[in-house]
Amino acid sequence: AYKKFSELLPKEERENACSVRVPKSRILTLPELRANPFQHRICRVFSTSDDGDDSMSFEDFLDMLSVFSDSATSDVKSHYAFRIFDFDDDGTLDRKDLEKLVNCLTGQGEESQLSNVEMEQLIQNILEESDIDKDGTINLSEFQHVVSRSPDFARYRGLQR
Q: Are 42 and 33 in contact (CB under 8 A)?
């Protein structure tokens, strides 16, 4: 992990890798993130930058790798997946978050974009399946409940080492 992180830095900064932040633009060059539709959200969620530039320290990078590793528990994976899908960072997945989530998964191109009717039906189906307290949003525990019923979720590795 240290080698991978330090290789994202210019040569002259590599010996200080533990005290330097890697810019988001360099993090996004990682092959594991390059094609990930949630690449920007992943950087946002794992970055501890006070500047809001989504740069990462070595510790941030380790946190990201550990969540996507095989050894991370389903609870840890689902907690971070929830944070990544919570685009407005308000602690719930509402209709706007779900629409952005669907658009990320289906692509932004006109040929792959759902019609308004299809999008509304899909969001309605997601809420019917997941919104246990029927408040129109999905909270973390509701999300984790749904995820716990999906054996594929725990196997998803996102970032390979």
A: yes
Instruction: Give per-residue burial for 79-95: e unless 16+ CB within 10 Å, then b.
Output: bbbbbbbbbeeeebbbe
When pLDDT is cut at 50, 70 and 90, the band that residue 160 belongs to is very low
Give the residue range(s) of CATH 1.10.238.10 domains in the chain: 1-72, 73-160
71: helix, strand or coil: coil
Q: pTM for the whole thing? A: 0.88
CATH 1.10.238.10 is held by the domain 1-72: yes
The topology under which CATH files domain 73-160 is Recoverin; domain 1 (1.10.238)
